[in-house]
Queue: 2 jobs
Job 1
Amino acid sequence: MTTADIHALTGAYALDAVSGVERMEFERHLAECDSCAQEVMELQETASRLALAASAPPPPALKARVMDEIRATRQAPPVTEPVPLRRRSLATRLSTVAAAVFFVAAAGLGVVVFQQNQQIDDTQAQIAQMEQILSADDAKLVPMANPDGGSVNVAVSSSQDRMMLFSEDLASAPAGKTYQVWTIADGNPRSMGFLEPNNGNAVLAVSGLSDAGAVAVTIEPDGGSPQPTSDPIMSGSLTS
Amino acid sequence: MGDWARRLRSTRAETPVNELGPDLIARVARGDEAAFSQLYDLLVGPIFGLVRRIVRDPAQSEEVVQEVMVELWRSAAKYSPERGSATTWAMTLAHRRAVDRVRSAQAAADRDDMVGRRETSRPFDEVSEQVTTRLEQEQVRRCLGTLTDLQRESVVLAYYGGRTYREVGELLSTPLGTIKTRLRDGLIRLRDCLGVA
């Protein structure tokens, strides 16, 4: 994606009309483009006026439930130091293991690109995103072996509040089934999407970890389940 | 209740204590439940209306609104006035949560299950007729009227429909590059008409 293309996304981004991967790529661009940041701020302000115009009376009982829940919810700490905008070079930040996994994954993505030309943009964005996650100070790699063949690696950064799953030689799910990914916070699973391997390769980007302590993969009927219906076949800890 | 929309908007300049602004958010960040209760009252109407419009299913909409409210409580300390008004911070979060909900496959499965229920629920327009914020509505409606048909359709599908620009392109049989431009130009026109920033 060229810079001009990215810049044209300010409107779509302010309306949340971008895919998860594009959202993250655009946010990366925003950190380095002051004029885009200003424009996005104004367009978000504009979009919020559309929300104000959609106001509707809520059920009165909702407030008591919310008040109960906030009393039981610990608040996040303030941001105490500025987050550096520029990334240090990939080479100086990556451990040997991380680098190896990264390049294997990038090569895997290349295979997918070869087969699915229309996804080139997304794939480049995925590689960029993985690079960015792995360059965080608190980046962590969590390998998970699939008992039925292949593996899924998770690159996670708590400070960036996101993770990326990428498979190697992942066996296809049984017919009529799919791999569903969950994050688990306080024992509660939350669906994050699916891994659908193409020649063993699948990638899933997840933002908003909400303090989840673990990631798990279950096999669910096609279309997924609201809650896991089977024990995880793979899982890993997200905390450092 | 009639002029809360104006109060919500006046968050950039000095903000009286009983309005939504940095001071109120700062009190919420310090764990002040009374301040949060006030923030809830100021924001719940627009948040509920927006989420309901995107998610449609009443029970799921309530869940999302509750999530959004708790998240506002949880992350109040991270709000920074330099990055926009408190209202925009809240509405951006609410919109994103609603969109995340409808885009997850889980919601797709839930929605299929709930088709019957949804059909018996009140149609959206009837709900929106009860809105107390006539003034805000009229202004937004008037300004939406200054957009070209194609800009307006795209913006409405994306924002109120929770569609991605790819989906908007598909729905309007329009190339993606055109949709991106249309969304941006439409919002810019809307911004200028509403006098934002």
Job 2
Amino acid sequence: MALARVRSLFIPLLAITLLLAACGQTQSTTFSSVGAGLGSSATPSPEPWVSYPLTLTDDAGRTIILAKKPARIVSLAPSNTEIVCTVGACGNLTGVTDFDDYPASVKNVAHVVVQAKVDAEKVLAAQPDLVLAAGNGLTPEAAIKQLTDLGLRVMILYPKDLAGVYHDVTLVGEALGMPDRAQSTVASMQARVKAVTDVVAAAAHPRTFYEVSVFGGTIYTAGNDSFLSSLISLAGGDPVTGDAQSGAIQLEDLIAADPELILLGDASYDLTLATRAKALTAVRARSGWGQISAVRAGKVIPFTDDVVTTRPGPRIVDGLEALARAIHPELFGS
Amino acid sequence: MRAAAAVTPRTLVGGPSLTKASLVLGGGLLLLLVAGTVALALGSVGVGLGDTAAILGHRLLGVPAQVTWSAPAEQIIMEVRLPRVLTAMLVGGGLSVAGATFQAVLRNPLADPYIIGTASGASLGAIAALMLPVLLPGLAVGAASSWLGVGTVQVLAFGGGLGAVLLVSAIARAARGGAVTLLLTGYAVSSVLAAGVALLMYLSGNHLGAIFAWLMGSLDGAGWRNLGLAIPLVIASLLLLLARWRRLNVLLLGEAQASHLGVDPHRERLLLTGLASLATSAVVAISGTIGFVGLVVPHLLRLAMGPDHRLLLPASLLFGAALLALADLGARLAGGIPVGIITALIGAPFFIGLLVRSRRVVVGNS
């Protein structure tokens, strides 16, 4: 019954999409590309003709052959959704996750991933021409295998750093026949990153500890060589890192590293860390933390831009800018 | 004691009466059919009973039909739901028969299919497979995912489960002990393997979610390919177990009596353990460790009809298959929570209720 509903919605939707496409660039203006910092300078232009069948290689090294321009796209991760939308194909999404919240229009798209579970039936009902999964186990490997076995085209995106995000925006842009939009998004991201790195280049890089969470006495931070640690470096900090895999750090190692600044990425989820005063009190009260330079100097800051800092999509630059403002308030004002 | 008294020389050779047998097995078959139908008709995407029946009739039986359904509907029924329901039945039936066997062989009411190391061995294998990209960072992610095509997780889980059981059996045989030695050896080996599992989980980083899903038992990702890997092993070992019902009954009488009746208890115990472990390992490899089914189903059936394995084993197969198909339906409709949670959440209180009512556990313990 639900399937029939999806289908009955699909035909008028398709008609509208075709109509809009015929009218010109309407579709690509529905989503103004990258987040806060980008002005409306990116004027949408008709994309050059991309020839299909198109052969692409995804981040897992798999070859994906697209017979035609994908009209229906399922995204299995919020970062993938944002990439699809930034290249101007938001209207082609027929399935997303229950975690998707940006841009606002995707909240109305069917949820094919619920509580991190990929529902193969719902993915099939969304009739995707292309499924965008996340790598490194974020989309369970069993689910990727199941969808591939069902004959769906699954592309795995797993950006390990900013260059990886640029690459994925470009890759998705090519796959969806929107290479120009992808190119302009990447160019504006690069310009904004350069603006940040130029400003912090001459400044001192304080030893910065980013608290992802403290759970059952185990402290989690940016892993060694992780995406997050590279962002902290770019934002003008010297990251105190944990285990490359888990991000866990021993309290002794944290004390020995003696951070000059503590950013509480978990402040969005923990009310006891919500304000600067509360956060400082709470962190000072933790056994062994009192003598850390950052705590003594009162430089313990609730960092509430955790989502954009940890979601490897186009808004990652928002995260970088937020980090730079938190690490160097004197340079960026705020 | 009371339980052992239920197995008399007459039941050993004569078997159950025809009416009781047809009642139990007929009931089991009926329940299995109903469970299968309901589980196929319901899911997260509504297909409709008429379309479901038409698709199945058309594709399985070749019933000529006007194709009124959509392509995704057909794919959902034939390639997602049907293999999943069949997997649930195979897993439920396999675990129940293995559980019944272990309870008789070890003469222990707490025995379940995982009791002598299958679960921890298989878990270690599966988790090692899930973490291959981390453990051997030299391998490209692409290489690892192409291995997934041939089911690295399944192969290593199966190997781990069976390896653990063979190790336990070898130690127990060297010790020349009885059922208790086998139990204790299993426990000790399991502890070592569980420590390995815990270590890998600690190092797992982003893979923790996949590992948890596996440990809790889930039929997500069930497909024809995995089912095809498990079916021959499970069916073969179950048939061999069913054929040995008489020896299982004899083992219930105790070692001395078994020897008097011409059954070598040591040899028979290891053989039966091996067969049950083979079925368990094959099942665990495709479903993860689903608890409670293998413990509860044989007990419930024993309460209902006594410990004669001629009837108990096939009944365990039918009822175990039906119950897990229904439990997995519940798991799917509840938004895909692991089916192991459903089996414990509903199975345990139900089991307790029956225990309280009957005030005894029939295991044939001496």
